[in-house]
Amino acid sequence: MPILQKSQADRSATFAFWAFVTPALLGLTVFTLVPIVWGFLLSLSHAQNTIHPGHFIGFRNYADLLTDEAFLKSLVTIFVFALFIVPLTFAVSLGLALLVNKIGWGRSFFRTVFFIPSAVSYVVASLIWKVSLFNGLPFGFVNHIIGLFGAHPVAWIGTAHPPWYWLVLVTVRLWLQVGFFMIIFLAGLQEIPKSLYEAAAVDGAPSGWPVLRYITLPQLKATSVSVLLLNLIAAFQAFDEFYNILGGSGASIGNASLARPPLVYLYSLALSNQDFGRGAAGGFILTALIFAVTLLQGRIFGFGGSEK
Amino acid sequence: MRRNSVSLLQPAASAAEWHGSRRDFLRGVTVAAGALLVGCGHSDVPGARVTLTQWYHQYGEKGTQEAVVRYAKAYTALHPDVAIQVVWVPGDYGTKLSTALLTRGGPDIFEGQITKPMVTAEQVAPLDDLFPPAVRSDFSARDLAQNSVDGKIYGLKMLDDTGILYYRKSLLKAAGIAPPKTMNELIAAAKALTAGNRKGLFLGNDGGVAALINVAPWSAGGDFLVDNKIVFNTPQVASAYEKMRELSDSGALLIGAPTDWWEADALVQGQAAMQWGGLWSYPTIAKALGDDIGGMAWPALDAAGHPATFLGGWSAMVNAQGRHIEESKKYLQWLWIDGLKIQEDWCLGYGFHVPPRLSLARSAAPLQIGVAANAVKDLNIWGRSLPPEWNSAMGTALADAVTNILKEGRPAAPELATAARKCERELSRLLE
Amino acid sequence: MNKNNVLNQLPRYLLLLFVALLFLIPFYLIGRNALMTDGEITSLHWAWLSPHPQWGNFSALFHDTAAPMLTGLANSAVIAVVTLVFQMLFSSMAGYALARIPARGRNVVFFLILATLMIPGAVTFVPTFAVMAYLGGVNTRWGIIAPGVFSAFSIFLFRQFYLRFPTEIEEAGRLDGLSYFGVYWRLLLPNSTNIIMALGVLTFIASWNAFLWPLVIGQDPSAWTVQVVLSTFLSSQKLNLPQLFAAAAVGVAPLVLVFLVMQRYIVEGAKFSGGKE
To answer: Right CATH number for C66-273 from 1.10.3720.10, 3.30.70.860, 3.40.50.150, 2.30.40.10?
Structure first.
């Protein structure tokens, strides 16, 4: 291609490039970049009952939050929640994927059954869990079932001893997301070359646990890491089921106080209490925390990219 | 907690109560379709020069929504150039309202509880000129104080609410117990009345934290925020919460019911023998249980304490950022100051509320007898509320402490000390 | 997989059946309660199904002016469809440009998009609300829609997809005199139906089920989505249990339908966004 034509092509490519990316870039700028900058300015402001930065107070919002027992407790709460939900989701979705992958007949039926809760929203699921499944009165489903075995009805949500509300919160998220991660594991399983298993059989390796331990799991490493990562980031942003099952601030605050994740706390701080400065500062602290945990997980398990 | 929670703890409507006629349904469909086409902006009503938007939270009592629409239409009939668009807001009203006030499209008139930051941020307009001396003297000092910040009045009280400890007379009689006068008697009664699938007492599904967080310490002579000082970190308040824990641990509390304390279902359906509820529910309860119902204020902590209840309710306010402040004030004056008949209909025609106008409250026949009369008497003697400086961040801090005391079984004194430190920080932020 | 393995697989099937039953309980509960009277739901004597199914619960739901279910359904449908269409359009355009159009500044743009990908969306909700209030989008459907249209994640996925698109097709098109736009519109887009379907269905589901943002933005009942209407039932109404579950059924049914019909694409989308493709 002659040089002159090339520079013309360059120019038309540049034009086309910008024409193609401008809508997306504009949108991301307005709804992601500007909010980040605006939020940062708000986080440096005393913004009570206003969303306009201006009354700057340095990093006091950050300092206040980091010495605020309720916020620190919300961070502990979300760690505890992640500690339950991440390994459980991992184990159950991997387990189901292994089971479904092994069977011949009925595979798509089971896949559908496990996957279909992903279509349900957290709001609807919370509603079923709170009002019907784990209702504290004898007509709750679980109370009916344990009643068949002679147990008394349990108030699943309102009491701290024992903290049954964790069972309610963890099972609802488990039910909602296990199917999605099972699909990802199934895809990972189908990518493992059959020859590996055949070679193992020739070498006389018994089937079952050793095959799982030395072939399947190592081959699933990249998938596992991405499942862990998606799961962990989602867990740290938990809001819907806590807000809908335990409550936000107000009516059942005595239940909300039992386990309040950061986003619920920031929601009530920013929107109920109208302190947008601290609300924004809390968002940045939470983001930093998610980054840190992600990096830590990368350190421990790798990020999954290099192994592929 | 009270100030901000009241907005959420009010009677909320039953979906079933609002079955509209077929015409309402069709109108709903048309409105939905229209909204789809033109977006959700509040369009001006044709013919009217000014359209005022007025927000109410969703009251639970049957007929209330129709009533406020009727009032608004009556005003337009008298003043054809002013149309009122009533917006009936179910859900988390407090949050929705305060968020709407941040934006340009907020309501002109709304109900709520006044807080100091709303005044500082110039969200509410002063209403002092609606209160000439003759009007002012017809409101109680407490109602005026509740609606004043730095000497100016920002809220026009539309109704006074109060809490009642309801009990089934027959069940108490059968168990051979008298209506409890102290917390110890209440705990004993709640235990004695727990039998089979019925619990002794219902205080809400969080075990009474939200409902009694202020009332219980008041019954011990404690308080929360007085003259811009946090005053709840005292042995009295601690002992009040520790007594509440004894009640929690008694196993006599109903927890996990489908409705919460502000509805009377648990009592009416026999899930509990006693219930903390509102005066607003009294007509419903009396209809269902007839004479088999008694009521009183929350019992004294001990011999040194006294009965306690809250003075709640709703005030009408005008958006200082609205475009029609003067028209809004005129409408409010017509609605809640000149319109004594309207206030009577509003406070007594649906659920029971105490009319804030003293002249009206004195003459209101339904409030002169039985449980209601007692409740009004108790409200006048013992009714308390939190000042406009108390905010929801303080409420959250206190609720966390109380949850720890009641549910986690932690000692009260250190929890209250922590909460008090937090509240003092919040207060100094608020006052800066 | 041998036929004589079926006996060996019996325990596996039993275990799967048991878990499948557990997974179906919530759906059963929605259906059961939606067709009962309040008294039957709260009865101390458990009935697995109502002897007299109350289909009237559904018509009662749609006549309820306090919880505008019809408006909610209409809003959710409009919001989900508009979000889906524009997100696919803008993301595929940007993805194509980032993958295939050599231009100065491309790496900077790509880095910028990757950076926004790292910021958790739920965490920026307060400042995004501030921006939206400033733009006048509070209480409007476009205010609920707009932030969801621009997804760094789906731009990224489209870029990965177009990176592997055979260059021969594109070059042939260029030789035939097609512009970049022509290549995108005539060649790439028609060959992207799979990824568009896969990501599109996921976008639709996410948009239909979104809660926090519509809750914050849609204050007036006329702007509520299905999820906000449902949450309203849960948070403040005097609970009418049958109607609550009828509402849940109505809120879930469209998505379960989409799910069953589009399952193939959803599975592909899940794999793709999980990094398995």
So the answer is: 1.10.3720.10
